Amino acid sequence: MEVNEMENKKGGPKPPVFCYICGRQYGSLSIAIHEPKCLEKFHIENNKLPKNQRRSEPKRPAVVLDESECFIGYLPPPQLNKG
After folding, report:
1. 83: exposed, middle or buried (C-beta count within 10 Å: 0-12, 13-18, 19+)?
2. What residues contact residue 30 under an 8 Å CB cut-off, 6+ apart?
3. Cα-Cα-Cα-Cα dihedral of 53, 56, 62, 66, to 10°?
4. Superkingdom of this entry's organism (predicted)?
């Protein structure tokens, strides 16, 4: 692989990020705008349900930042030992 190819891949667009609340795909910058609105919508819709059908608020997973501290994505949840 040539040096120019690596530079292009490193400087290219960032991969999409998925909202931990609704599962939709967003850009790395727009996810910060989307999340508070999505959480608000979650509460509105959840409060319309009977109490026995309501879900607990989704917890934000740990985030991954790049070297310039820009959002990249979420860490997967820890795996439970089944042994």
Report:
1. exposed
2. none
3. 70
4. Eukaryota
Within a domain: residue 70?
yes
Domain-embedded: residue 79: no
Q: Which two tokens stand for residue 32?
A: 């910060």
Q: What's the rounded Cα separation, in Å, for the pair 77 and 50?
A: 29
pTM score: 0.62
- CA-to-CA separations, 65 to 14, 22, 37, 51, 77, in angstroms, rounded: 12, 21, 22, 37, 16
Rounded Cα distance, 70 and 16, in Å: 13
Q: 2 in a domain, yes or no?
A: no
Q: Which domain holds residue 30?
A: 13-74
* pLDDT tens by residue, 17-74: 889 899 999 988 898 899 999 999 999 999 999 999 999 999 887 776 666 666 666 6
